[in-house]
Design brief:
CATH superfamily of the largest domain: Cytidine Deaminase, domain 2
Radius of gyration: 22 Å
Helix content: 40-55%
Number of domains: 2
CATH architecture of the largest domain: 3-Layer(aba) Sandwich
Strand order of the largest sheet: 2-1-3-4-5
CATH class of the largest domain: Alpha Beta
C-alpha cells in the first residue's frame, strides 16, 4: 500500500479502482477478496488514521486470523477494537451468523457415509468451544441428515444428557437412526467412563424404540474418536 507525502495512509477512495474492495468484487469476483477486504465492505468505513481494510485486518488479528473465533465474538467484544462501534459490530456478527446458518442447512442435506462425514457436519457448531456441548444428527433410512440438534450445553468438564429429549426429537422427525456427538475442549479424544455409560444406555433405549444409535463421536479441534469405528458400540 502506498503512502501520501503527509505519511498518512491513502483512503480507499484514493486507491486504484481495481484495488478498492467493492470495485474489486465487481471486476474480479468475490473469491479474489481477502478476509480483510470482505470485512471492509461490511464495516463501510475506517477511522481517521486507518482505512476500512486496515481495520478489517485489525479485527482479524484480534482473533488470530481465525474466522471461527471471530464468529464467536459478541457485540461487546468487537466494540473493544478502536473504530468498531455497535452498528459495525452488529453488521459483522449478522453476516457471520448468516454464513453459519448456510453451513447448517448444507449439513442437513448431507449423506452420512462415515464417521468423518458426521464429524464435518457438526464441526461448524463445536469447533473452538471452551465448554462441552452435546449434539445429535438425526438420519433417515438413506442416512441423509434430517436435522442437527443441540441437546445440552455444559461446562469445561461435562454436560447433562437427557435421553427423553434425544428420542423426542427423533420421534418428531421420524428418524431412522441417531448419531451422538459431544466435544472435549481439552483436546483429549478418548472417551471417559461416563461417555461409555451414556452411549450404552442410549443404545439400549434406541433398540426398544427402533431408532438405532449408530455412532457416538467425541469431537476435538484436531480430530475425533468414533465408538463405531473402534468397535465399541
Amino acid at each position: 500500500m502506498e503512502y501520501a507525502s503527509s505519511d498518512k495512509p491513502l483512503t480507499i477512495l484514493q486507491w486504484a479502482e481495481e484495488d478498492r474492495p467493492r470495485e474489486k468484487l465487481l471486476l474480479k469476483g468475490k473469491s479474489t477478496l481477502s478476509d480483510a477486504e470482505l470485512l471492509a465492505i461490511l464495516i463501510g468505513s475506517g477511522t481517521v488514521s486507518m482505512s476500512a481494510v486496515e481495520l478489517g485486518k485489525k479485527i482479524l488479528s484480534s482473533c488470530n486470523n481465525d474466522l471461527n473465533k471471530l464468529a464467536k465474538q459478541t457485540v461487546k467484544d468487537l466494540q473493544k477494537i478502536k473504530g468498531i462501534g455497535e452498528a459495525k459490530a452488529i453488521t459483522i456478527i449478522s453476516a457471520l451468523e448468516l454464513g453459519r446458518r448456510r453451513k447448517n442447512e448444507e449439513s442437513q442435506s448431507l449423506k452420512v457415509q462415515s464417521s468423518r462425514d458426521a464429524y464435518e457436519a457438526v464441526s461448524p457448531h463445536l469447533m473452538d468451544l471452551p465448554h462441552e456441548e452435546f449434539w445429535i444428527l438425526l438420519l433417515n433410512r438413506a442416512n441423509i441428515v434430517l436435522k442437527l440438534e443441540q441437546i445440552s450445553k455444559g461446562g469445561i468438564a461435562g454436560t447433562v444428557v437427557d435421553a427423553k429429549i434425544i428420542f423426542k426429537y427423533a420421534i418428531e422427525l421420524l428418524a431412522n437412526s441417531v448419531i451422538l456427538v459431544h466435544n472435549h475442549p481439552s483436546g483429549n479424544k478418548q472417551p471417559s467412563e461416563a461417555d461409555v455409560h451414556i452411549t450404552q444406555k442410549l443404545k439400549q433405549i434406541g433398540k426398544l424404540m427402533e431408532i438405532a444409535v449408530v455412532d457416538h463421536i467425541i469431537f476435538t479441534n484436531n480430530g475425533y474418536y468414533s465408538f463405531a469405528d473402534e468397535g465399541k458400540l
